[in-house]
Amino acid sequence: MKKLLLLFLVILFVFTVGKSLMVNVDVRDVCSIEIKSLNASLEGLPKIDAEIYNSGSLPYTFRVLIEGKNIVWSSKIFEAPGDLKRVILYFLPSNGTKMKIYFCNKIFERDLETKEKVFQEGNWFSINKARVYSNFIVLEVFSNVSSEVVIMPLQYPENLIVESYVGRLKTGKNFVKINFEGEITSERKMSFVVATIDGKCFSINEVKLEKKVGLEYWFFCILDIFRIWLY
User: How would DSSP label each residue in 158-178?
Assistant: First the structure.
């Protein structure tokens, strides 16, 4: 009986000492972002080239916005903790251009040292039609040159996030997909810049967005997706 009592006291002592030595570690979730590198080039068609680093402990998606003479958005980009993602965005600079990163319901903002740049506009490109669907717009673009181009929004409703297109246009008719986020409830006009990467061929086009309904919506949606793949 005495041995059992002694064993119980030893176990109780070890448990008490061990508990007193325990350290509670409070690991907090942190959502943070860093710009590891940032270059703003005004040669040719102006662009920013940035490396975005997730320095926190939470994964998130982010968008980059450049606010100059026009407002351009990156696509949504997923970034896990420790990830480093590169973002390239073309834009029209002003004397007070800003860069903003939207993530985790936060905004990281930085001023860019840029000056307004004037381009010589010509009839290099024309947007003949634009049809709007649930989250993308299909542009029918006629090009007089075969080249790598950027198609970016110039004027559009403030409630929308409109992305840009970067890719090759061939001479003649092309079909291009522009992603957007928001709601377009009625047919309205938007303007786009179509320019070559070197900035030598530059056009501005205003076009009315066609919004199909019912069976017409699905007919043109399937047709336009096929045209994008074909062209």
Answer: TT-EEB-EEEEE-SEEEEEEE
CB neighbours (10 Å) of residue 117?
14
pLDDT of 112-131, one tens digit each? 999 999 999 999 999 999 99
pLDDT band at 11 (very low <50, low <70, confident <90, very high): low
Please state, in angstroms and rounded to a whole number, the distance separating the CA atoms of residues 107 and 115.
24
Q: What is the pLDDT of residues 146-172, one digit of tens each?
A: 999 999 999 999 899 999 999 999 999
CA distance 139 to 228: 10
Tell me the chain's radius of gyration from C-alpha atoms. Answer: 27
In order of their start, the domains of the chain are 33-111 (2.60.40.10), 125-230 (2.60.40)
How many Å apart are CA 61 and CA 38, to the nearest integer?
19
N- to C-terminal Cα separation, the chain:
92
